[in-house]
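Entry type: protein chain
Record version: 2
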Amino acid sequence: MHHKCINRKITAGGASTRARGRVYPTAALLRPNDSTDKRRIDMATKKKSPMRAEKSTGNVFADLGLPHSEQELLKAKLTLQIYRLIKKRDLKQAEAGKILGIKQPHVSALMRNRSGGFSVERLMDFLTALGQDVQISVRPARKDKDHGEVSVVA
């Protein structure tokens, strides 16, 4: 993994030092001391600050503020089903590609939950090619919601 080197002044405990050529990968900003310590580490001061928890909407894509979050969640759920079927049948990626009508690198992307290049319709086609029935049902939204939602039930 390639990390960008930085050259900046770091102050820790009142003393100043230069961090010339040190590597600070982004992941290091959230490095906990152990499995129970989930506080952020400020790389400049090496001090811990509390992490702020926010209640999830149940859709990580919406929580991140991404566009088309409902569609992205649906694609992720469909991709998970495809992944499970391929693993359950112990198919090699090339074999799965023949069944799905796509090349092995595209199967590899699906197996890593990279469904971005495929539409919801195409993912449903993959499921039917794997011998699954895909059922779409439309019903009124719950009264406590101002809009409907799309779900995958397996």
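Comment: The chain has two domains: 7-49, 60-129.
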